[in-house]
Amino acid sequence: MTSPVRTISPDATLETAVEEMFAIGGSSLVVTEDGHPHGIVTKTDVLDSLTWEAGGNRAVQVYGADLLDDVQYEDVVALIEKFDQRDGEMSLLDAKVHLHEHDETLRGTPLLLARIRLHTDRGLYIASGEGYGASHALNEARDVLERRIRDRKTYAQTKKPPSEEFWEKRFGWLLEE
Q1: Quick one: CA torsion of 19, 24, 25, 31, rounded to 10 degrees?
Q2: Phi and psi for 18 in degrees, rounded to 5?
Q3: What is the pLDDT of residue 62?
Q4: Are residues 77 and 128 in the same domain?
Q5: Tell me, what's the pLDDT at 176?
Q6: pTM of the prediction?
Q7: Average pLDDT of the chain?
Q8: How far apart are CA 138 and CA 80, in angstroms?
Q9: By C-alpha distance, which of 38, 37, 40, 19 is closest to 29?
Q10: pLDDT tens per residue across span 69-108
Q11: pLDDT beyond 60 at 177
C-alpha cells in the first residue's frame, strides 16, 4: 500500500495510469471523479486488458505453441469457446493450455502431453491428455475436461429411485383405492 492514496481521473489513458503506478511503486490507483471515488484500476486490470485480442476474441494462453503442428491457434480458441457455449450457467474467466513434448515418436510424430486449465465462476477445471500430435492430445484433454464438468454438475445427486413415501406424497390422490 502506498500512502497517501494516489488518484487518477477517468479520462486519463491507460499509459498514464501505468506510468503513475511505476512512479509511485504501487499496484493500483483510485479513479476519482469530482473528488469522489469512482473505481480502482490495478496492474492486473491492465494485464487483463492486454490479453484480450482485437475483435473481441478470447485470448487463450498456449504454452508450447511451437508444438501446435497440425492445429492452428484459432482451433484451440474454438475448442475453448465450446466449453463456454455448452453450459449457459457457467461463465469462463480464463483458459490456459500447456503442451509438453515427450521423447517418444510414432512415424515422426512426437508424443505430446496437453493440459487444459479452465478458470470459471464455478471453480477450476484441469484435465490432461496424451496423444501423437497436438490435435490428438488436445482432443484427449477435451474429453477428460468434458467428463469433469459433467461429473461436477451431477455431484451429490442420488441415483436411487424415489422412496415409497415420495410416491405417496406425489400421487397419493391417485393411489387411493
Answers
A1: -70
A2: -65, -45
A3: 85
A4: yes
A5: 61
A6: 0.58
A7: 82
A8: 10
A9: 40
A10: 888 888 888 888 887 777 667 777 888 999 998 888 888 8
A11: no
Whichever domain contains 29, its CATH number is 3.10.580.10
Q: Which three cell numbers stand for residue 139?
A: 482432443
CA distance 30 to 20: 11
CATH number for 149:
3.30.160.100
Single out the residue of 142, 63, 73 nearest to residue 101, CA to CA: 63
> What is the grid cell recorded at 52?
484480450
pLDDT of residue 138: 92
What's the grid cell of residue 77?
480458441
Question: Which H, E and C letters describe the chain, residue by residue?
Answer: CCCCCCEECCCCCHHHHHHHHHHHCCCEEEEEECCEEEEEEEHHHHHHHHHCCCCCCCCCEEECHHHCCCCCHHHHHHHHHHHHHHCCCCCEEEEEEEEEEEEEEECCEEEEEEEEEEEECCEEEEEEEEEECHHHHHHHHHHHHHHHHHHHHCCCCCCCCCCHHHHHHHHHHHHCC
CA–CA gap between residue 52 and residue 14 (Å, rounded): 15
Number of domains in the chain: 2
